[in-house]
Specification:
By secondary structure, the protein is α+β, with helices and mostly antiparallel strands. Helices cover about 15% and strands about 35% of the residues. It is built from seven helices and 29 strands. Bound molecules: 2-acetamido-2-deoxy-beta-D-glucopyranose (2 copies).
């Protein structure tokens, strides 16, 4: 009998060590892909592009407001980073024991992982069942004097000294919940389950506002203490994660996040220093070079950032740059493009050209973003010009808007078909061009 118990215990221990030395990947579901519950059959690619521009503008405004409100980004401002219905990607989480699937917003700008839980007295209506902690043997309430609880902003002591959080978002959305720890299960590339124990997990008992009924939770992928990345990556075989975003025009393939050694960016790559400010990963952009024209220098400092001058923002579609940089860039691009100008019907991107076909698109230049450490990332026209309709017909717009008094953003459109790796041990980001459908 004792031997049997010992055997079971050592098997359990073996399962844990597997997770600890693991490397695995997660599929990122773009909200407009047919796999997403948000997929709209009748929307055209231009409708989708336009909606994503609109979401980008909302996100940029919210990021700017957060930075201004704080006079800098505070590490403790964890969940309030969330911008409810402006997300771009979803991912499936398996939470608890036995694991329950939760379709979550993948949010690179926030930290906490949360779901709506039973009993949710005043939660937004969701189509999936609520997470029921009574059904999970690994659910543990976190005490309010714990480090995890202190890592949250706006946390308090609740019933039985449990850690409670209360967040209000700028748009009026709110979540209230209890901080717990839970097991998260992922699958390694060979299909075996990998269990990560004691991961901070917010169990909402109230949520309201502009959340969609088709999502049941959120996975914070930012750089702060309670994010999925910060909690899981240190226990992997390498303190590293990467992602590769497929172009949005490819509706069949999926983007992925790869955790651990399997994600290391290989081949011909460039590497630049990366800093973590609160939830955000921050880089230093030095210069932007327009093929066939001149280069535009970028000032070393930017509003709200102290360690660099641009946030690498995979949850925002278009790029945001300071007004001066943007106007010089517009000038340089205008010098080399011989197409008639058009107006962005959204009024967000300052430079658009009327295009009537592929021959016109060939006239658009490559544009290189040069980051610190001689890290030149060359962007093809499809990564830096966005298809739009202006009042005069089809247009291609430079996918850059004015960051104004907010921090500059390097968006996900520019990152498509790049393998982007985050080496958290040495604080560096690497880029290599890749066919993300094949990674
Ligand atoms: C789907 O897209 C069409 C065309 O853009 C739009 O009119 C409609 O409102 C969209 N439906 C939903 C549910 O978003
Ligand atoms: C929890 O378990 C009960 C009883 O086994 C079951 O009826 C219920 O559907 C489960 N709830 C969820 C959300 O899994």
């Amino acid at each position: 009998m004792a031997i049997v118990i010992l055997l079971v215990l050592s098997m359990a221990a073996a399962a844990m060590t597997t997770a600890a030395a693991a490397t695995f990947s997660i599929e990122l579901i773009h909200r407009d892909s047919p796999k997403s519950p948000f997929y709209n059959h009748s929307a055209t690619s231009v409708d989708r592009a336009r909606a994503s521009i609109y979401r980008s503008a909302l996100q940029a405004r919210q990021i700017a407001a957060r930075v201004q409100r704080k006079g800098g980004i505070e590490p403790s401002d964890a969940v309030s980073r969330l911008v409810p219905d402006t997300f771009e990607y979803l991912m499936e989480l398996r939470v608890g024991t036995p694991p329950i699937s939760v379709l979550a917003i993948a949010d690179t700008g926030s930290d906490l992982i949360w779901a709506n839980c039973v009993p949710c007295t005043k939660c937004y209506r969701q189509t999936a069942p609520l997470f029921d902690k009574r059904n999970s043997s690994s659910y543990r309430t976190e005490p309010c004097d714990s480090n995890l609880c202190k890592a949250l902003s706006s946390s308090a002591c609740g019933v039985g000294r449990s850690c409670e959080y209360h967040y209000a978002y700028q748009d009026g959305s709110k979540i209230d919940g209890v901080l717990a720890t839970e097991d998260l299960t992922f699958y390694s590339t060979d299909g075996s389950p990998l269990v990560f124990s004691n991961i901070a997990f917010g169990c909402n008992y109230q949520s309201s506002g502009s959340f969609s009924s088709r999502t049941a939770g959120l996975a914070g992928l930012g750089g702060g203490a309670v994010s999925l990345v910060s909690q899981i990556v240190p226990s992997l075989d390498k303190i590293y994660f990467s992602y590769c975003l497929v172009p949005k025009s490819d509706t069949q393939a999926s983007s992925k996040v790869i955790f651990g050694s399997a994600g290391v960016v290989a081949g011909s790559k460039v590497t630049t220093p990366m800093m973590v400010e609160g939830s955000f990963f921050v880089l230093r952009l030095e210069e932007i070079i327009v093929d066939g024209a001149g280069s535009v220098p970028v000032p070393p400092s930017a509003p709200g950032l102290t360690t660099g001058n641009i946030i690498i923002a995979s949850g925002t579609t278009i790029n945001y740059l300071p007004a001066d940089v943007l106007s010089s860039l517009v000038q340089e691009v205008s010098r080399v493009v011989s197409l008639p100008k058009a107006a962005d019907s959204e009024g967000i991107m300052p430079l658009c050209f009327a295009v009537t076909g592929e021959a016109d698109r060939q006239k658009l230049p490559f544009i290189t973003f040069k980051f610190a450490g001689e890290a030149s990332v060359s962007l093809s026209p499809t990564s830096i010009f966005m298809d739009e309709f202006s009042f005069a017909g089809a247009a291609a717009c430079l996918a850059v808007a004015n960051s104004g008094s907010g921090p500059p953003l390097f968006g996900n459109m520019a990152q498509q078909n790049l393998h982007v790796g985050y080496d958290l041990a040495i604080q560096a980001v690497s880029f290599a061009s890749a066919d993300c459908t094949k990674l």
